[in-house]
Amino acid sequence: LAVFTDVLLDVPGGIPSSIMAQKRSLEELGHEVVVFAPGFAASLKNMPAKERKNIITVPTHHVFRPNGAPLSKRPGKVERFVLSRFPEFDFDIVHVHYEASCSIAGMKLARRFNKPLVQTMHGREDMAVQINIPKGLKTFVAVVLCFLHSRYIPHFKQATADASLAPTLARRKMWNIMVNHANYADKVITPSEHFKTKIVEMGVEKPVFVVSNGVDDDMVAELDARVKRMDGSLIRKVEEGDKLRIFWNSRLSREKRIMPFMEALSLMREPFCCTFVGDGNGLKSARRFAEKHNLMHGKNQQVVFCGRVPHEEVLDKMIKQHLSVTVSYGFDTQGLTLLEAEATGLPVFFCDPDMK
Q1: N or C: less crowded end of the chain, CB within 10 Å?
Q2: Dihedrals φ, ψ of 4, to 5°?
Q3: What are 150-193's pLDDT values in tens digits?
Q4: Could you give the C-alpha distances from 39 to 7, 102, 220, 279, in angstroms and in order?
Q5: CA distance linking residue 311 with residue 52, whole number of Å
Q6: At what angle do helices 311-319 and 336-343 cross, to 10 degrees?
């Protein structure tokens, strides 16, 4: 299996976690998996040797790094690099996990060598542009990205005009990318039924299968051995005089609405301690806000930023919490946070009705 993704190394979040889980599970079944992704040698050195096996970094820009993430060079350069390593491109299946340069290269190679092509649609790129690009530039950026994408992947289909999902030209252009990218594949995977419904409504015509993200069975089994359960659910009580222990286990980013959540914390009057696990483009702003509102210091420290934490340690921390939170709205296709909370018996506060 050849896996192509633009999101893996030096990027926190559910997409890299799901790709690594796919790689690990298939290898345990005896299959060979080679992952192609942008990144640098230093990124691989920070990974356990077993995990970095057969992860190959493709030509990557050294200066231009949007939101700190590595960005691969043009699809043609990536194709030539891959063929220099695998001139026969003797893979049985190509699985693509994103819509940018490296993933486009994987799709073009699959078509050139007549290999079965699977595309997993992970995210709402229309919402990423809506939330992250400054006002006045959204349409320009979306039009440029759509044009660049159409140079490599044919845009035979215009995304459906939808007052809810695509109310602006910028969002329609990003839906054009997602729809035509999916239609270029043989099979399409989404992590949730609600996202499948949306992409079909917007114009995806290829067969779409729902395959949920998941939590490693072995990790859950280890947790079950340590967690006391009664009637199938974990008992979590806030004892008298105890603080409510809140847990944030998502990217600290604008898409996840980190700053509205920080504002909500500053208004809380009951004793609490919120532990943040993760990284992202909103971390600095969140820290500054916490400093300004005296949430990080003193005997009654209310906010703790842990940064990136190995997955098994995340689940371990979740056992000790009272409540998990995920406050994104209209962005997540499926919250891995929800599945991890379920695996550890942790109640979840969520905002997006799609997450129910």
Answers
A1: C
A2: -120, 130
A3: 999 999 999 888 888 999 999 999 999 999 999 999 999 998 89
A4: 9, 11, 30, 17
A5: 16
A6: 60
Closest of 353, 69, 341, 108 to residue 227, by C-alpha: 341
Phi, psi values for residue 129, rounded to 5° = -70, -40
- Lowest model confidence (mean pLDDT) among 164-168, 182-186, 198-202, 328-332: 328-332
Task: Report which listed range, 142-151, 190-199, 219-228, 279-288, is most confident.
Answer: 142-151
Start-to-end CA distance of the chain, whole Å, equals: 33
- Residue type at 135 in one-letter notation: K
Which residue in this structure is represented by tokens 């709205």? 329
Per-residue pLDDT band at 86 (split at 50, 70, 90): very high
Tokens representing residue 271 in the block:
């004793």
